[in-house]
Structure of Leucyl/cystinyl aminopeptidase:
Amino acid sequence: MYIHCICTFPIFESTLSRANLPRNMIENSMFEEEPDVVDLAKDSTFPALDPDEVAFEPRSSRLLVRGLGQHDMDEDEEDCESSARLLGMSFMNRSAAHRSSSSPYTRQAPPRSCSRPSGRTMIVCVLFLVIVASLTMVMYFLPGCNFTKRGCQRTNKTTPSEQVYPVSTNGELFPWAQLRLPRSIHPLSYDLTLDPDLDNMTFTGRTVISMSVLHNTKLIVLHSSHLNITKATFKPGDGEARDVTVLEYKPRQQIAVKFSEELKTGQYCVLTLDYSANLSHTYDGFYNSSYTDTDGNKRVLAATQFEPLAARKAFPCFDEPSFKATFLIRISRKPTYLTLSNMPQAKSTPLLNGLIQDEFEKTIVNMSTYLVAFIVANFTPISSHVSETQVSVYSVPDKKEQTDYALDTACKLLEFYNDFFEITYPLKKLDLVAIPDFLAGAMENWGLITFRETSLLVGKQSSNLEKQVVASVVAHELAHQWFGNLVTMRWWNDLWLNEGFATYMQYMSLQTVLPQLDIGNLFLAVRFRALDDDALNSSHAVSMDVNKPEQVEEMFDSVSYEKGASILLMLNASLPGDQQFRKGIIQYLKQFSGLNTDTNDLWNSLTQVFSAQHPNVSEMMSSWTSQKGFPLVTVSRKGGQVTLTQEHFLLTSDNATQTSSLWNIPVTYVTDNCSLAPECRQMFNLKTKSGKTQKSVKWLKLNYRNTGFYIVDYGDEGWAALISALSNNVSVLTQEDRASLIHNIFALSRLGRVSFHQVLNLLKYMSNETQTSPVTEALLQLNVLYQLLDQRQEHSLVARMKSYIKHQFASLMDKQTWKEEEEESVSKQELRSALLKMACSLNEEKCIKQARAQFKQYVESNGTLRIPGDLQQVVFTVAAQSNEDWETLLSMYGQATYDAEKRKMLRGLASTQDPRRIVWILKAGLRGGLIQTQELPLVIYTVCHGFAGYLFVWDFIQENWDSLIEKFPVGSFAIQTIIKSATSQFSTQAHLNQVEGFFSSLKERGSQMRSVQEALETIRLNQRWMDKNLPTLQKWL
């Protein structure tokens, strides 16, 4: 799934330029490894464990460790945690917690002489002991638990343990008490019949599931959510079908069928379920959507979005990635509609009620339920062929002319992937469908990829910058047809195996297939943002335990996507030659084709290929996936000796969060002797705390072209040498290396390792900088500080910061034109967009005047005079600051047909500083209609970046929280974006208290989300940075 990212670039939405990823490695033994400085065997003091690092066994994992080779738990073997809770045994933990050294109830020092207790005291003590002994015996013999060294871990088999199980909707006990389904039954095939009624927004269905019994069991447990099951029958093997009762436990979205006699291992059986439901009014499950055509008519349709946990909202199923099966799907429709599903249509049958039933071919591959998809709509396609596969792009009829670029790009990429992976795409057709109402950026359903219209449709006159967005999403989703669909992660804890690989291949493929899109700078920028997110203590490991539905939703974040892609890039860059990594992933795909995997399977598979050149792939890469965060590599020099030391780069650096983590780092570096060409790159694996060398060089630049996932501190002398080198010759380093120096020094300033004075010293060279990546990174970092100062109402500092930015970038800003030039590179468009957005946001007179003139010409031409795509955002934002032009822009927004342009208009409208308009646009986005609810996260993000808007947003979120989590699931990327947007610029204790108080009051409605912890941590960091650096800024600026 492609997350529709909003908050990656606070300054500019445009994307950044191509970089040739280094693949050659010159082995160098310059550094000698030095043992860890800390000897843990001798050191008896250990830092406190981070909450994320505390090992525990969740209830839902006890069954899983048995795997497929063990029987299911019987009722009398079930986890008794619920029983303990019912019996009130949690008092044991509480009383233990209360026995702390800080308790006011401490024993007094004994008197100097002993006296014999009175008779009354003796009687009271005896009675107390009798009561304690009685209570202990009663609790010991209560049903439900035997006390072992591990506590209440198994049931007392002499008594029933029914309290373990939750209660079904009908009052009976539900026979399963885990989040994960039992492994005793495995689905083989689904036969689905669906009858949607788009007039009444309802549907009925029949699901026939053919299953195999893997272990003796008396129950079948599967998923169902918001489905009214009207009839259920069960047919065991060759036996007769009989009606069965279905139990439902709604909190876990599970249903179950119990049997009096065991189903035997190896037995084949069929469960048939008839049901009815409403089409979903949110963006998951089988949901309704609508749009208005050019004639003003409202058109309705129905589409699906099942990842991660919503297939169960459309049909009863085993809704976990490892339960792969085949699917045969039938859908009824009106004659004026068409239907689409994963496979080609096999036949159409007229029904007596005037409808038509379309039947699709049975899938020729086993699929996870989250990849199933179907659509009922009146879309129009265009098609082409790649080998034996028909590739089609579908859209609403009015936008058919905007589909050509997507079709051409998809065909090129499919051909590339078929060749690159040496595994041909297995299905007969590949459909790409633009859905008018779609929350994610896109979804990789096998054979039926669904997209937002902005992610798939571009006009014939669209700029390469706009085409880059579409090409990126298409490349990501097509990569999923191998990584995710063909080989699927076993459980959501390893989501990165899907999303990290798809993200990496998205950038790698476009550098080869469409080099004119300059995709390299975009990949560099997203790696910087992944480092920023992963520097928080509230981050998480790439592969981590996932035990709750909201935790599944939260895995769709920058760690799974961008960090996953970044460590794959780092691995590739550490290998000799340019084909080793490709050979490794081909081996992985072929070895596990059609199966489910975990992270260890990947590393073990790659080790088989790399063993000669890189024998410790598993050892090296496990350090990057099993622990959160990344290393800070510090360079220190003394005479001719250079020492590299690693530690955890952690912005929240109090004692409670310190760890002794080490990474196996493939450190790359260049020196003043040779610094530009790939052949200059030297490499060393830093496995221990530090490594040393004897080398006489003027300077070293580590992390060549930023292919590694770490940050470097060069020390005062090292930074001074690099700053001097750049001042003398800006081209002494690649643009990627210059950008990484800028990113790293701002990060180190936030950490407190370098002064802000050093940051500004580095930026002095920027007057000679002309390349996109360094300029856009510097603008982004400065804009973050500018926004913090502005919203802290440090007016004099804001004015001086504004003057500093204008002065620093004045020559570059003045060179930018407002006309689209032929053959202009994407990189140049990105640079122009970022510079002019900054200039206008600082109210630079020339910029404002030009933007207003562009908008006036655009309006007067009735839209026939096109604003260049990379300048539309700045023009619409400037226009929206005028009352008259805001109203004009709103009218144009309602009539716009090009979705990329329409989205920029919306961002312009949301940038208004008028309080009434801010309130209106927030409410309009929540309500839906003119502004689709799918755009509300974008509206909130944009409003928050205005001086007037961010406090309105915070109030809006508090007042409308229940409505927000009704539309967007708790933990989802949309909710993550809303929380981050609303709180990331707070920097005072008062705001910290407000945010903490509000979210703690939510309890199960969102208080435990990781994004809440990230928000609180970010506010504290903002507060700390401002307190430390305000005096420096006041003095220096």
